[in-house]
Amino acid sequence: MRSRADDPDTLHLWWGISMFATQAQARRLAHRVPALGTFLAELRLRDDPSVRVEQTLGRGRYTLWGDADRLLASVIRVVPIEGQTDGNTNSAQDL
Question: What gap in Å lies between CA 18 and CA 57, rounded to an integer?
């Protein structure tokens, strides 16, 4: 039996970054899987051929692939996930 780590479709998703259509969707997943972290990043994506977005894994769920520097430059805001803490009490930060 093939493991998930051997499945080409799974590996393809693992190379990407999970994104959601709404902040509420991202928060729900973050509360279900705390290991994902305690902050959400909001991105403003420009039309850039080096960045690819596909709808994956259901309604409102997307996977993003692209150059790390370009993706980092598209972050416009970082917000804490309520109910989770990493010891940092800072509120939302616009970038």
Answer: 10
Q: Domain-by-domain residue ranges, the chain?
A: 4-94
φ/ψ of residue 83, rounded to 5? 85, -5
Query: Which two three-digit tokens encode residue 60?
Result: 């409102």
Tokens of 86: 């990493």
Q: CA-to-CA distance for 93 and 95, rounded, in angstroms?
A: 6
Evaluate the CA torsion angle 65, 71, 76, 82 in order and state its sign.
positive
What is the number of residues in the chain?
95
For residue 28, which amino acid is it?
Answer: R
Name the average pLDDT for the chain: 85
- pTM for the whole structure: 0.72
Predicted local confidence at residue 91, as pLDDT: 55
